[in-house]
Amino acid sequence: MKILTLNCGSSSIKYQLFDFTDGETLLAKGLLERIGLPDSILTHKVVLRGEEYKETRSIPTHTEGIGWIIQWLLDSEKGVLKAKEEISAVGHRVAHGGEFFSESVFISEDVEKKIEELCDLAPLHNPANLKGIRAMAALLPGVPQVAVFDTSFHHTLPEKAYLYALPYEYYEKYRIRRYGFHGTSHKYVAQKAASMLGKNWEDLKIITCHLGNGSSIAAIDKGKSIDTSMGFTPVEGLLMGTRTGDLDLGALLSIMEKENLDVKQATDLINKKSGMLGLSGISNDMRDIEKAAHEGNRRAQVALEVFAYRVKKYIGAYIAALNGLDLLVFTGGIGENDYEARKLICVNMEYLGIKIDIEKNCFLKGRDEIISTPDSRVTVMVVGTNEELVIARDTLRIVGKK
Q1: Residue 123 confidence (pLDDT) above 80
Q2: Are residues 145 and 204 in the same domain?
Q3: Which of 107, 154, 357, 397 lies at 20 to 30 Å from 347 by C-alpha?
Q4: Separation between Cα atoms, residue 205 and residue 319, nearest integer Å
Q5: Are residue 125 and residue 218 in the same domain, yes or no?
Q6: CATH number where 324 lies
Q7: Do both 211 and 145 map to the same domain?
Q8: Is residue 221 included in any domain, yes or no?
Q9: Tens-digit pLDDT profile for residues 292-313
Q10: Is the pLDDT of residue 107 over 70?
């Protein structure tokens, strides 16, 4: 069975094609960027042959974008399929499942309607996810589709972790609460790290740090998420590329009043103009900020320190929530590749049992590895995430039941 996974953003589509006929074989993957602009770019990789292709053209819509992707998958030179009918199912990353979905589901008309209802909770993500679902229904009618939700892994949060200190009526009327995101990533790396240690993740207390342009932390006790840093939206929690993370709401209201900002402008401020970009004044890319810091830029250095300090505080808080810690896992673009960020986060945490091997941490690149010292009470690991594989596995499991 061949399964296509799609992760549709507002102007991008990430995809992977898996073959589950004999094991779990990744056939091809790629990224279509700048949808809606004249110079849309498709980067396509044929994994087994180690070939990469890139092309630029105008792609106005997601439907046309997915059509272009399928063309490449079928291409006699660049493709890996002989006919589109070889695609047995499609798995979609969907950002917000609200309280409707505690696990991945087969996409029916009713499910699609519920995803649409939740667009208010994830206005930057769910509409794009829906575009992918509807585009595939038009291009491959009759092919089963599955929704895998970022929020579903965090459905095990207790009330004390997910409720906000607002009048309770707002939870009852509007379901204002902590939902959490990056669930597929947190679950995948926690299971993978435990397996690498020869242990069952349901026997461990684990903190997973998904650090990238969007960042979140999860506290996992015996295989269940009990707390996570992102909240009602992906804005809450850690300092991120362009998102504020935790912020005094009074400060936001004060800025709105002084700058005469409406709700849309305030939303843009906290989602697109803040975070590492806002603090550093340089970029939302950690590599650019670290380069500037090495060159003596004070604001860049402060931004790095704030980022690491926020992560460190959450780790400490979640050790308290878990009543101990067995395993700390770093993943995501920053978590997997940025040894300086990992060092800043982990130094001076020996009291909590976290002690990393500085040399091992510095030279780690492109592999899953333990970076803690032999005498560290907490095992610290770097583990590559693979959300697309989780989506494909869930799709295979659900379609197999039909």
Answers
A1: no
A2: no
A3: 154
A4: 9
A5: no
A6: 3.30.420.40
A7: no
A8: yes
A9: 999 999 999 999 999 999 999 9
A10: yes
Same domain, 130 and 226: no
Task: Tell me, yes or no, whether 357 and 210 share the same domain.
Answer: yes
Is 90 exceeded by the pLDDT of residue 5? yes
Nearest to 153 by CA among 195, 111, 190: 190
Q: Provide the domain limits for residue 228.
A: 199-382
Q: What is the pLDDT of residue 300?
A: 97
Does residue 170 lie within any of the structural domains? no
d(CA 382, CA 343): 12
Q: What percent of the chain has pLDDT over 90?
A: 87
Tell me: do 123 and 225 sit in the same domain: no
The whole model's pTM is what? 0.90
Region of residue 198 (phi > 0: left; psi between -120 and 50: alpha; otherwise: beta): left
Q: Assess whether 352 and 217 both reside in one domain.
A: yes
Farthest-apart Cα atoms in the chain, separation: 62
Is residue 398 one of the residues assigned to a domain?
A: no
What are the distances in angstroms from CA 299 to CA 92, 164, 283, 362?
39, 33, 11, 24
The Cα–Cα gap between 311 and 269 comes to 22
pLDDT at res. 162:
98
Cα gap 231→218, rounded to integer Å: 11
Residues 353 and 283 grouped into a single domain: yes
What amino acid positions are annotated as catalytic residues?
150
CB 380 within 8 A of CB 372: yes
Q: What is the DSSP string of 58-122?
A: ---SHHHHHHHHHHHHH-TTT-S-S-GGGEEEEEEEES--TTT-SS-EE--HHHHHHHHHGGGT-
